[in-house]
């Protein structure tokens, strides 16, 4: 094998690889010997077919296999010899000259091909202990807990029977029989069904038809099933419900006591307040981490400048742009509606693509330099969390991830990123700064404009 560099431009590389005809012949001969022991051809005893006969029958197809295998092996060898670190799978270009191809297959011509690729840049890491960051924090106060408990009380009302007419917010208990074209239908009949008016739990027209009714009333209510209803026989159909109103009850805010706490699955009001505080702490800690992580990524992006592999940036930009245009199509909006132009937006999203690639390379370099890895246990835990999102399909989803390396990599990537971020935060000078809740949650999602993402 002979390797020569034919082009170098920044991070782009082009190599010419030549494998001699004699080397190819050796490989072909070796492959034919393997086939000799297996081939079963009429007129020959198994394992005794002459090699030259096999060459006549299978020569071209075996040579095609040998060429492919040779290209794969010599590509790896050429990159390894030169200690190149390709940013992605190199592009292989074989000769298109028919005479040359014929010579290769006839065993009289050298195999030559061109390898084109981009290499990963050398990343010079800055001193992480020199990074200074502010972490916004918002402690949970008793007043915060009081407000949250009040909301819980308001959204878990008790109902007290009343004599007056039913209005929005009231609970109406009814018996009903639904009819389509005068005939009852499956699922259209119920007894003692509780319906909270205004909650939107029934098909359009049903709750509105019950507004103003009183206990003891009998009424025919007109309603219409939505066009997208799951049962095709009923989708988009107008139906009539014969209704008997059993009870009308008005909502009341429950008393905050241990009995109410028990109805929510905790033992006491004190435990309820503790649970509320725990949830709020967790939520605020997450928002705080997102903010400090974004500040860290901003600082890394600003303090490290190096050449980026153009194809990696192009691929990242294409992925972002595809999502942006898809969002516009779905929302029926234009760039002008967003106060920008396509040209300006393109420039902005290309900057985002460059930022993501730069940060991806940086975090990868920091992680590998400091031997940060994601353990099988950590990966399995995250995989199980993902699987829980598909009740009833756990086995299929598990098998999909276990058999699809790219999908598993999508679960591993954010775990790896978070471990590297935690490592840097340990080294950096991080000071807590108390902020209001509004400030903590302002731009909490980070928008796709800022946060780095492997996905």
Overall, the morphology is extended
Number of strands: 11
Largest sheet composition: 5 strands, antiparallel
Output the radius of gyration: 34 Å
- In the CATH hierarchy, the architecture of the largest domain is Orthogonal Bundle
Q: Briefly note the structural class of the backbone.
A: alpha+beta
Summarize the helix and strand pattern as letters: EEHHEHEEHEEEHEEHHHHHHHEHH
The domain tally reads: 3
Query: How confident is the prediction overall: mean pLDDT?
Result: 89
What share of residues is helical? 40-55%
Q: What's the end-to-end separation, in Å?
A: 39 Å
Low-confidence segments: 446-455
Number of helices: 14
The CATH topology annotation of the largest domain reads as Trigger factor, domain 2
CATH superfamily of the largest domain: Trigger factor, C-terminal domain
Strand content: 15-25%
CATH class of the largest domain: Mainly Alpha
What is the topological layout?
Layout: E1 2-9, E2 12-19, H1 21-36, H2 51-81, E3 91-94, H3 98-106, E4 111-118, E5 132-137, H4 142-154, E6 158-161, E7 171-180, E8 183-196, H5 206-210, E9 218-224, E10 238-252, H6 258-263, H7 269-303, H8 310-331, H9 342-369, H10 376-387, H11 394-403, H12 405-427, E11 429-434, H13 437-441, H14 447-450
Parallel strand pairs: 5-11
Antiparallel strand pairs: 1-2, 2-4, 3-4, 6-10, 7-8, 7-10, 9-10
Describe this structure in words.
Helix content is 48%, strand content 20%. It contains 14 helices and eleven strands. The protein has helices at residues 21-36, 51-81, 98-106, 142-154, 206-210, 258-263, 269-303, 310-331, 342-369, 376-387, 394-403, 405-427, 437-441, 447-450; strands at 2-9, 12-19, 91-94, 111-118, 132-137, 158-161, 171-180, 183-196, 218-224, 238-252, 429-434. The strands form three sheets. Strands 6, 7, 8, 9 and 10 form a five-stranded antiparallel sheet that branches. A four-stranded antiparallel sheet has the order 1-2-4-3. Helix 11 packs across helix 12 (405-427). The longest helix has 35 residues, at 269-303. The chain is extended.
